[in-house]
Amino acid sequence: TTGGASWDTAGYLNAFSLSPFNDQVLFSTENGILNKTTDGGLNKQVVDTISANGYRTDFLFYDKDSNYIYRTGFYYNQGSVYKFLVSDKSGDAYSWQEKYSSPLPLYVSVDYTIAGSVYLAAGKIIYSSTDFGYTFSPLRTLDRNITGIYKKPGFSKLYASTDNAIYEIDGSAISIIKQIPIDKEIFRFDPLDIGNKWVYHISSPTLYNLDKEVVKDTLLANNKLFKQIRMIYSDSLSKNISFTYERIDSLTGDVYSWGADSTEYIIDNLNHNPGDTIFASRYFRTGSTFFDSLKTVSLLGKQFETRVYSTGDPFIGYDYYLSKNMGVSHIRHNAEVALIITTLKGAVIKGIVYGDTSTVVGITDKNPVRLNKFTLSQNYPNPFNPSTKIRYSIAYRGNVTLKIYDIIGKEISVLVNSIKEPGNYEINFNASGFASGIYFYELRSAGNMLTKKMILIK
Which residues pair with 417 in a beta bridge? Predict the structure, then answer.
């Protein structure tokens, strides 16, 4: 009471929170039990006897309506769960009610200018409540686990942090306002250096090999430098050569591929942690990929730190590995009617040979290259109204997709998505429900891709 010139002992308590409405009201914990004092610490009373096992939150959240206080806690003795609790009587005894629980850590923020306005984050999802935390509605989903949130009082902006970035969320708009620099080690999980080569053995259930090599740098139409990757599918009778294009953004860790509509699209992101969801897919033009776990696997006689991913559903999805210093080392494709396994047989990475690279180093062409086995013909008629025929050929048994895209690259129709035997095919495309304009049709099979343009005139 002397401005700090002298001090008297008010009481002995492990105080951690002071009420913004009354400086005589403090909360404390002893052995995880919550206590409250209303006389500055002279006396205290137990207000919650449920022990949070010593992991109670370091602070409470006070609503504009002084009757309401919020808190979170970790309850080991109740199944190792995190709980969100609400008191509607200023934190008094027997007033705390559990309103939300999760196996994941909970983060809370309150808009102190609006009574009843509470924000809660668990995992990748941010929830909001307008009724003092009694009910919550999903507000926003991020692609990785959230480590904190803050609602700016009196403004529409909400801030959320993850392990490497801070996001500003304003209605439907979201932007990164701060990002921790990327650990350069992540790029070693997808080494796209020129000269790197891989040999894969594929069973689908027919057997064939895939020889993959980063050939050169190529500047594409968007003025970005891509790696040209040569893909050679071969069996005892023939070979099929095609090219794909990929690049990795050094600032974000995004991995891009070049699409049939002459635009790039994200297929992966290397700057994620286990448990995160990547809103991209290496094997589908749209979709998401789950970063399942990080483990050590035995590969080509050595141990490699490996990322395990899964994408799609259990019936037509992919599981794949990215091994450090090696790249894609395993693919398990659950196709509609067959299981396709791709196994790394050998590789040459920065001049170092791993495993069996006999089909990469010193290839002898015992059989002629047959490039026409995988073909996509120009649709006929073209221009057309309202229907046209599309012919294509495939060289190997496997999953085939034939999709239609509009001029901005949006997928508008899937004509084929199934297992096909080698051979020639024809399919009719009816565009009765589409507007006049330019469209693209894209054929994918066994890692190959072809695209052509067609014109609908009504």
Answer: 401
219 phi/psi in degrees, rounded to 5: -85, 120
pTM: 0.58
Give the single-character DSSP code of 386: S
Please give the pLDDT value at position 239: 74
Q: Which residues pair with 241 in a beta bridge?
A: 232
- Binned at pLDDT 50, 70 and 90, residue 365 comes out as very low
By the 8 A CB rule, do 122 and 105 touch? yes
For 144-181, the pLDDT digits (tens) are 889 999 999 999 999 999 988 999 999 999 999 998 88
Report which residue type is found at 279: F
Q: If you average pLDDT over residues 383-406, what whole number do you get?
A: 87
Q: How far are the Cα atoms of 66, 333, 335, 356 from residue 204, in angstroms, in the given order?
A: 66, 9, 9, 21
What the block records as the tokens of 99 is 């309103």
DSSP H helical segments within 237-293, as ranges? none
How many helices (H) and strands (E) would you count in the chain?
0, 36
In angstroms, the CA 74 to CA 142 distance is 23
From the list 83, 88, 26, the residue with the least C-alpha distance to 56 is 83
Q: Is 262 left (phi over 0), alpha (psi -120 to 50) or beta?
A: left
Does the pLDDT value for residue 52 go beyond 60?
Answer: no
Helix (H, G, I), strand (E, B) or coil at 372: helix
177-207: buried (b, 16+ CB within 10 Å) or exposed (e) per residue? eeeeebeeebbbbbbeeeebbbbbbbebeee
For residues 433 and 418, give the distance between their C-alpha atoms in angstroms, rounded to a whole number. Answer: 24
> Could you tell me which residue, 421 or 105, shows the higher pLDDT?
105
β-partners of residue 197 are: 213, 348
At which residue do the structure tokens 């790197």 appear?
Answer: 196
Contact between residue 320 and residue 289 where contact means Cβ atoms under 8 Å apart:
no
d(CA 53, CA 48): 13
Among 1-15, 52-66, 179-193, 353-367, the range with the most confident prediction by mean pLDDT is: 179-193
C-alpha distance from residue 237 to each of 206, 247, 311 (Å): 13, 33, 33
Residue 78 CB coordination number (10 Å): 15
The first and second tokens of residue 149, run together, are 């949130």
CA–CA distance, 272 with 278 (Å, rounded to integer): 8
284-328 residue pLDDT tens: 777 789 999 999 999 998 999 999 999 866 566 789 999 999 999
